[in-house]
Amino acid sequence: MIELAIVGYGKMGKMIESLASAEKFHISGVYDVINPPETHLKEKADVAIEFSAPSEVLKNVEFLASKGINVVCGTTGWYDKASEVEAIIKRYNTGFIYASNFSVGVNLFFQMVKDAAAIMNRFSEYNVLVTETHHTQKLDKPSGTGIRTAEYLIENLESKKSYVSDAERAAANEINIISHRIENVVGVHEVKFESEADSITLTHSAKSRRGFAEGALLAAEFIHTKKGFYKFEDVFGNIK
After folding, report:
1. Set 67, 134, 141, 240: catalytic member
2. DSSP states of 84-120 as a string?
3. pTM
4. Are 54 and 11 in contact (CB under 8 A)?
5. What confidence tens digit (pLDDT) does each residue in 87-126 have?
6. CA distance 84 to 88
């Protein structure tokens, strides 16, 4: 039985709570900005699933790690602080796993993007574009998933070296990430390979937040006995 704390009790936190199997998890506490863990933690947890805000990640990870609690971080937009978070995890000798997107379907989409990019190396007539669409409350732009998609393309396409965001015109060696914010959209990510003759499109469209919550719970099972700094995309094949 994994003692699980939920840090961030918005839509994602509530979804995680509803899906956490009673056979695998016991919810030891639920925390938010009104009821923060640093002042309200009562029961020790094995793992905390953290879905808060980018500005809260360092503080939350510091406190949780200091209590010996491993962390699943689903918050995005903090990656410029990744080295600081990794140093915290090393200092307290705990476990940490994060993702641009914990959705099982998105991680399958990543695999398909990598495979498609490797194939497209042989067909220079195709250019590539990434688009991402989210709800209007999404704070980071482009999304972490949009950036990670572009990074996988860059890793596997010899012609691409970097990405740009919402550029009117991208250079030949750049991938343009176009971002849209629309009411009531969970998340849509698209990779389009386009030539003068035709277009080939890979799309992941989230129907609800369920896939994100299921992936975060898989990550909690993975990290609860481990130490170190992990990225969900890198260990996804070993988790499923």
Report:
1. 134
2. HHHHHHHHHT-EEEE-S---HHHHHHHHHHHHHHHHH
3. 0.80
4. no
5. 999 999 999 999 988 999 999 999 999 999 999 999 999 9
6. 6
Catalytic residue (choose from 11, 24, 59, 138): 138
CA dist., res. 176 & res. 186, Å (int): 22
State yes or no: is 14 an active-site residue: no
Question: Which sign, positive or negative, has the C-alpha torsion 79, 185, 234, 226?
Answer: positive
Tell me what pLDDT residue 144 has. Answer: 85
As a whole-number percent, the residues of the chain with pLDDT over 90 amount to: 74
Residue 192: count of CB within 10 angstroms of its CB: 16
> What residue ranges define each of the domains in the chain, with the CATH number in brackets?
2-102+210-239 (3.40.50.720), 104-205 (3.30.360.10)
Q: Is 204 noted as a catalytic residue in this protein?
A: no
185: tokens are: 């959209």
Residue 201's H or E segment, with its range, is strand 199-205
Per-residue pLDDT, 236: 86
Residue 208 and residue 12 in contact, taking contact as beta carbons nearer than 8 Å: no
| Separation between Cα atoms, residue 87 and residue 15, nearest integer Å | 30
